[in-house]
Amino acid sequence: MAKELGMTPKSLIKNIPSANQQWKAPVKIWVRDLYEGKFGKVLGTDDSSGKRKTGASRILDDDDLPF
After folding, report:
1. Which of 4, 20, 21, 65 is most buried, judged by most C-beta within 10 A?
2. pTM of the model
3. Does 61 score more than 80 pLDDT?
4. What is the DSSP string of 18-47?
5. C-alpha 41: how far from chain center
């Protein structure tokens, strides 16, 4: 998702919240929000109901994300 948004690894590392930045969302949630805002959907969800796909049609899971 970050690659599709044009982000580099350096930009992701810069946006990791520190201890005094409690207001800042974790990077993986932040990237998902940006992706959804730009493309209108999140990978791994079923377009009709908004629920995650399961089985062979599953694209990504939280644990599969590299960030």
Report:
1. 65
2. 0.56
3. no
4. -TT-TTSPPHHHHHHHHHHHHHSS-TTB-T
5. 11
